[in-house]
Task: structure prediction
Amino acid sequence: MSAGAFRTATGGRIDRTHTLRFTFDGRPLQGCAGDTLASALLANGRHLVGRSFKYHRPRGIVTSGSEEPNALVTVVRDGGRTTPNLRATQVELYDGLTAISQNRWPSLTRDLGAINDKLSLMFPAGFYYKTFMGPRFLPENWAWTKVFEPAIRRAAGLGRAPTSADPDRYASRYAHCDVLVAGAGPAGLAAALAAAEAGARVIVADEQSEMGGSLLSASRGAINGVPTAQCAADALAQLAGHARVRLLPRTTVFGYFAQNMAGLAERISDHDPSPDPEGPRERLWQVRARHVVIATGAIERPLVFSNNDRPGIMLAGAALTYLNRYGVTPGQRAVIAGSHDGIYAAALDLAGVGVEVAAVLDTRADPQSAAMAAALDAGLPIRTGTCIVGSRGHLRVSEIMIGAPMADGSIRDAGRIPCDCLLMSGGWTPSVHLFSQSRGKLRFDAAAGVFLPGVSAQSETSAGACGGASGLAAVIESGAAAGRTAAQACGFGLGRARAYRVEGILEATEATGHVNAPRLPQGMAKAFVDFQNDVTSRDLELAAREGFRSIEHIKRYTTTGMATDQGKTSNMNALALVSGTLNTTVPDVGLTTFRQPYTPVTFGTLAGMARGDLFDPIRRTSIDGWAQGKGAAFEDVGTWKRAWYFPRAKEDMHAAVARECRTVRAAVGVFDASTLGKIEVVGPDAAEFLERMYVNAFKALKPGRCRYGILLNEAGFVIDDGVIARLAQDRFHVTTTTGGAASVLNMMEDYLQTEWPDLQVWLTSTTEQWAVIAVQGPRARDVIAPLVDGADVGGEALPHMSVCEAKVAGVPARLFRVSFTGELGFEINVPVGAGRSVWEAVAARVEDAGGCAYGTEAMHVLRAEKGYIIVGQETDGTVIPEDLGLGWAIGKSKADFVGRRSLVRPDMIRTDRKQLVGLLTRGRDVLLDDGAQVTSVAAPAKGTAALGHVTSSYHSSVLGKSIALALVRGGRGLMGQRLHVPMPKGAVEVEVVSPVFYDPKGEKLNG
Amino acid sequence: MQYSFLNLVRQGLSGHQDWPAQWRSPEPKTAYDVVVVGAGGHGLATAYYLAKEHGITNVAVLEKGWLGGGNTGRNTTIIRSNYLWEESEAIYEHALRLWETLSRELNYNVMYSPRGVMMLAHNVHDVQVFKRHVHANRLAGIDNEWLSPEEAKAFCPPLNISRQLRYPVLGGALQRRGGVARHDAVAWGYARGADRLGVDIIQNCEVTGIRRDINGAVEGVETTRGTIKAKKVGVVAAGHTSVLMAMASLRMPIESFPLQALVSEPIKPVLPCVVMSNSIHAYISQSDKGELVIGAGTDVYTSYSQTGGLHITTHTLEAIAELFPTFRRLRMMRNWGGIVDVTPDRSPIIGTTPVPGLFVNCGWGTGGFKATPGSGHVFAATIARGEPHPIAAPFSLERFVTGRLIDEAAAAAVAH
Result:
């Protein structure tokens, strides 16, 4: 025997000649190529692999798939690649794999946390809601936050998060197809073949490394005379031959969203011992399918009895998979128990490889089936009308207790059976997760005791066991039919129907809701329903006793179904138990909502490539490279990088900004204003449209002139501003704030399309089309005049707030005479492709004129010296134009504009609203904090209402003092008065002054 | 039976057979003094305080589904009071003080855990806004402190403060008294508390109409379980408030959006506090069970569907994975949505309505859980007295007429 004492000599889909070494909790072990970690551990006789969440009970491998509740491990890889909470049943073995168990200390076999199991009478469902509130002599919450909660947190959790950053890459793709097939078992493969043969584009996704599903686990039976496993291989080869079919193994359809969009998680490299470091680890697929075939099969249910959780107790179907697919036996002496024919197939297969079958226990009194007859013929010890009532064993089951259900509901002791493994089957639950996620309505099939797909909400078909089909023949038939239906739904012909003839099958996958849950004797014994979260039948009874009726309440109170397996093995058992306890039906108890993801999805997969600089696109202006060359510091403004200041040798930010400000005021400065939002508003009704959007009168604006526009929301509050130029009767060049570019365009489109569809106006975002070079300062005209061709830039021809078209440095430009500094100023708009060259021409002349480039910080200081507002700084969504001293901008004779009605509401016309003022500190160098509060007294009592707050605060090198803008209640009436700005180290006294600190008459603007 | 360690031990010895139902499941009576519509946290708290503080015990709480099944059981349980405007500070601080004593008040451990709520700043504007909050809160006597990136990292070790981040952490505002609580326990604790004081909690009872007398005043509600008379009706139905108020011909200034949240698989303790990043849309804490609890932003379009788009989830996890690169290999275990009711100024509406006897408490948007005790407390007083409690008064429906809005969102770019 190779790679493990419990490996069969032959059979299975593993490669016995290819031995793989791995370690589990430090112990070196061997497996075979094709093994999962779970099958390799079982081959070595290891059932114990983990500890449960609450009671730290020893737990073994229960399933062979993604529904595994117990066998969670951490797979250790090099720096940052360690992953906790992986299901051993899904981890593909590779040479050198290192796995460790979780939630135990100091070791898996001796876990101190198991004390919880001994004290479990103190820990029923929801115990924490009833205690930890005292002791009374301590302050409220003291003991909870200092003692109990930390202890609970330490005890909870499963694996540990990695301690260094994940170095792996994750990819993402979008795809469209006609038919998406979720699951490549017999139904899915038949559906995919039928759809592909009808001509549809098909994507087939299956969560396992090898496609074929249950066909790979069957030991007998044939389809059209070909053994089942070979059938899967044949079908896959045919599908691979279709150019329009994409096969995605190791890919879970985890979510079914609106408009037939599915989320798929593809695992690409975790099974590789040395993955390509440049390649992705996993990939997110977002697939839009015209039709979805859900072929996700069914999940076997455990039996609920006392101590049903010991290592060595496993689902019968899982044991079959381990035996027939991986060549692994679960033990030497097995008991097989259940309530349907599937147990006989398992028993026969195990007996066939020499496992001693100690007993086959059928809860049914008189089963009468071909499967049982076959087992009887083989001489297996069958006991009907018998159930399991308990188990014994330390770290592994060693004996089971059996009983006979009596007519009065009691159970008569029927003895004990020594064994080293118990294979159980409580029936199969159709995997209706994706159907339910698609918002389809489930129906309860009372005969089978399961929920099945009912009314569809989207274009999908459930095929095979998840749609209620039972037995391989029916499963394949429903798959093939679903594939043809799907193709037809996509407009393809029905195509040729294949004939499938299934023979020699014993395996049964009937869905059945019967739950083996005898009344349990009093005492310590626990019958687990949710293995991972340690929810017992008693917990469910307690919840019902305490008045919880809805399954949603019971789930939340007991945490059943909330573990990492999301109730895949436990939900139906819980429902059946609760409905029994409450004496009602399963549908009356209800079903919890199936939420995506079907199985957990890596954060990295969902985040995809959006990391580092790709987290959000970086927007840079055409002049950005020049600024970088000059050593500028940058700040993030929305998605833009803007030059913040241009430090020269030994200058800090403060010194650089001071120099830039002084230079602009004394000579000239050049500023990259390209990030300003720009919208071209064109059409016969363009003026009318702007008249309705902005507070200002635009119909009266003459072509060639500009106006400072203020935009309000419907509540009357300022949300954006900018200079708006009329280029022609029917054409405006609108500018917005940098941050408002997109939202203002959206708002305009919203109004245009929904409120005023009659207006003939077209809106085009031109933010990215124009580079904007602002030249500001007393020498601005001297700088640009020689570069301008085709326009007179003199004060009379091009006065403040006007615009003309001209060539600047040989490039067609829109030349604005505007100022955001209070100085003589121009803004040169040139096509963005010419931005850099025009900028360099201008900047060279600026430098010659004794000027410099300045950044956003100097811009802020310069505008604050003039009392110009910045939306988002002087405004905060509660400020109306009058508050800012901008009431003059409102077109008084206008019939209407957005927000107008709100401006006459009682609160808007109060005279004591907060108004924009300037504040000066006594000490010229004392700088107020942005956002500091303004009060009337120096030492306000706690809870004193503020008069207002500081909106902007800078040191002005030009004025030789600190200046601040503030919104202060009734501020314009407080000029010259003293107020206070409380700071942590005491209040700062301030004087209320005009918000215009520099050139209050505005003489420098003109000329 | 009182909940206590002693009783837990006693019951443990007898197999927990004698715990009584946490609340009754009564048939509705034909008339009550007050009917509260909606058995979420706010509605149940309202009923509790009506009975406890105002002696009005003849109260029914009507719930169309199961109690606590709406946003109470779907949110990310963040509690804080460091709001900007004085009106907001007052109500959220009122709530926070009630949180601090709520477990003993209700004799139900709601697991209030003041582990600190840290809000991250990623650009100069964020810094200015959060510092303004710190100043305003200090004046109001509410704890809120500014942390440098290094201090933020010390408080929350897995946080990535690299300057190389696309939007690096420039600092954070920390409210140490902020934290989380167990959301279901809040609903159940109030339900049990109200029930013990005589309040009837009637689940699976949907209100289908609001009855009014000839003067227009409320005289009861029509339900799927018959007519129930009451002179006072308080509607506390979050996203569905607009639907209910329309039954009394009132149009509410509310839009409803799906808001999503998700949890990871449980891991051992790794994140000691609550971290919020408004500008890149990520909210995260770790539950006592070990799950990372992550909040996303709202969908862009209005909807009553309790699921949101996958792109909202991926966007949130992009941010989480950047801020916490060691979490990138952890996995999303469960993802769900709720419907949030959003007013024009993102602040709630609490108070009287133009319909005599009809009261409303709604519009909590994305941040209502933290207010649960305070909201119920002042709403109960408002219903009992027939006039707004002083803390509730600024949140009147009338403010949309007068223009006296309380806009936290616009002020701070914070909607949570």
